[in-house]
Write a structure and sequence with these properties.
about 375 residues; mainly alpha; two-stranded parallel ribbon; 11 helices
Length: about 375
């Protein structure tokens, strides 16, 4: 009986121990699961913090960029007149400095220029009183001259330089022109150490940095023959001919004067400027005079506008009359007829501005 009770006790104890072991196993699994969850959360938090720090860095960088942009936008008013070459950012800072100096000078003179322009326009609208005195005539003439300068400056800003085209039979000399229409306003910087290279590159004519012509290497008779056969521009031979007949084929960069519309001295023959001391008379460019004769057929070529010929070969093409053709000043050609009809030819400078309408051509020829 006792033995049976002892065996029953052992069986019960074994059953209890199995339940305890199972419970312990479950508790351990639960703890392990909890630890894994905590580790997973901790890892996720670390990843999230790294991502957040990266995002914060990006946001900070973006804010810095926006701050810089806002500052740049705030300075747009100061740099509103700057027209820079976006492709050459390494050189833009120099032009910005130069443009700032120019803007300061322009703003300092803006009020005076505005007053001069308004005064000149007022004189043009009302013209002169027939009983005006000599002092009034002088004042009016000065105002007209001021107006002509202002109008010339406005045209300089609106017009663009024309690219020299290839005329086919011959290659005209490449113009040594400035890349900017306002180079003459920066002439003082040509020899400034920090701007010298920039100025020689963008304003070679103004700074006197045009390339000199290379002499022919081949005998003259061969180069002349090549020119006569129009072989200078043939692709197959162009490199060799450029090397050996550089001068004869017109590959030189001629020191061509700027176009009249960009010439600060103006022109005396184009009918668009007031004649004044120093302005250029109607004449072919001396450095390419022989080319003018060769390209004479281009003066009336219907496939080309003749802009190059008109600028450099006006006499050869008959664009001007060296005998001083009598005509009214181009800008006031409409007003001249009105002034002449009102009998105002003897008032002030009307006769010199409107010689044709005032029948004063004979007086002009005798001058």
């Amino acid at each position: 009986m006792k033995l049976f009770a002892f065996i029953s006790f052992l069986s019960l104890a074994h059953a209890l121990s199995k339940n305890e072991i199972e419970n312990i196993r479950k508790e351990l699994n639960a703890e392990l699961t909890q630890l894994e969850d905590e580790n997973t959360k901790r890892a996720n938090n670390q990843v999230a913090s790294v991502v957040k720090s990266d995002q914060d860095a990006e946001i900070d960088a973006l804010l810095r960029q926006l701050t810089k942009k806002e500052k740049a936008d705030g300075s747009k008013d100061i740099l509103r007149q700057i027209n820079l070459d976006k492709k050459d950012s390494s050189k833009n800072d120099l032009w910005i400095t130069m443009e700032k100096a120019k803007i300061d000078r322009d703003e300092a003179n803006s009020k005076r220029s505005t007053l001069d322009k308004e005064k000149a326009k007022e004189l043009l609208e009302h013209h002169f009183d027939k009983t005006g005195k000599r002092s009034q005539d002088n004042q009016a003439a000065a105002s007209l001259d001021a107006l002509s300068k202002l109008l010339m400056n406005e045209e300089k800003k609106s017009e663009k330089r024309e690219v020299v085209s290839d005329f086919g039979r011959y290659i005209p000399p490449e113009k040594c022109n400035d890349q900017r229409s306002d180079c003459h306003t920066y002439k003082e910087y040509c020899e400034t150490p920090e701007y010298r290279l920039m100025m020689r590159e963008r304003c070679p004519f103004t700074c006197g940095a045009c390339m000199k012509c290379l002499p022919d290497k081949w005998p003259a008779k061969y180069c002349k023959r090549i020119v006569k056969l129009a072989m200078c521009n043939v692709d197959r031979f162009k490199d060799r001919i450029r090397e050996n007949c550089f001068d004869s084929c017109g590959f030189c960069r001629a020191n061509a004067p700027p176009a009249c519309s960009f010439d600060p001295e103006g022109c005396c023959w184009d009918g668009k400027r007031f004649a004044k001391d120093g302005c250029r008379n109607c004449a072919d460019n001396k450095q390419i005079k022989n080319i003018c004769e060769r390209l004479k057929m281009e003066c009336t070529n219907k496939y080309s506008p003749g802009k190059y010929m008109k600028e450099h070969c006006p006499v050869t093409c008959g664009f001007c009359n060296p005998k001083k053709e009598c005509h009214d000043t181009f800008r006031f050609r409409k007003e001249c007829k009105t002034w002449a009809a009102k009998g105002e030819c003897e008032v002030g400078a009307t006769k010199s501005i409107c010689p044709r309408s005032c029948n004063a051509c004979a007086d002009q020829k005798n001058q």
